[in-house]
Amino acid sequence: MRSARRVLVIEDDPDIAGLVELHLRDLNCITEIAADGDRGLERAQSGEHDLIVIDLMLPGLDGLEICKRIRAGEHSHVPILMLTAKSTELDRILGLEVGADDYLTKPFSILELVARAKALFRRIEQLEKPAATEPDSITHADLSIDRSRRRVTVGGAEVHLTAKEFDLLFHFAARPGRVFTRNQLLDQVWGYAHEGYEHTVNSHINRLRAKIESDPAKPRFIETVWGVGYRFPAREPAEKI
């Protein structure tokens, strides 16, 4: 039987924190609660957790600052699910931009939170047991991807990606030439597919292009297939001598 997952919930509302803890228990999770941003960051930096759930508005450090500091630290790849009472596109983009893997807007369905947590745990399991058919490293033109080190370079310069941006890029690059719809990417990279969340894919694609493409308006690596979705270009066959 799989050992219990450890979850840190940084949430100042005791009712919400208690509800999240209650339902994560059904996923065999051991949940720790921090009621303010400073304590939350201290515990997040311990490296003891498999998932961190962070409220955006907190006493002390806010959720965005905590997320930025986690991503800049030693345990930068732990999945982060952000909770926010704000519903504007800008707030959602900010959360994803600083490194959150996913977000939920309050009020949220507790069943959906559990579904998102399960999806993030599945991602952990996939990283712990990489598919035998997927390569450890991929090179295409001047783009290099090292799966084991989760490192990406373009033209020899390292590009810093969030955990989800890396997963998305690797998913494309390991399947060159294959076209993926937004719903397929939600299902295969995020672990869930719900109508209306396609903007999550769009946001990640746009930010990924801004980081790896010399001209995001004319992408070389993440191509748009109009009316369908996106693809990584097929590798050219080796030149015959």
Rg on CA atoms, Å: 18 Å
Query: How confident overall, as mean pLDDT?
Result: 84
Question: Based on CA inertia axes, which overall geometry fits?
Answer: globular
CATH superfamily of the largest domain, by name, is: Response regulator
Which percent range describes the beta-strand content? 15-25%
Report the uncertain regions: 237-241
Q: What is the element string, with H for helices and E for strands? A: EHEHEHEHEHEEEEHHHEE
The spatial strand order of the largest sheet comes to 2-1-3-4-5
CATH topology of the largest domain: Rossmann fold
Number of helices: 8
How far the N terminus sits from the C terminus, by CA atoms, comes to 54 Å
The CATH class of the largest domain: Alpha Beta
Descriptors:
single chain, 241 residues, alpha/beta, Rossmann fold, Arc Repressor Mutant, subunit A, 2 domains, five-stranded parallel beta sheet, four-stranded antiparallel beta sheet, 8 helices, globular, disordered C terminus
SSE arrangement:
Elements: E1 5-10, H1 14-24, E2 29-34, H2 37-44, E3 51-55, H3 63-71, E4 80-84, H4 89-97, E5 102-105, H5 110-128, E6 137-140, E7 143-146, E8 151-154, E9 157-159, H6 163-173, H7 182-190, H8 198-212, E10 223-225, E11 229-231
Parallel strand pairs: 1-2, 1-3, 3-4, 4-5
Antiparallel strand pairs: 6-7, 7-8, 8-9, 10-11
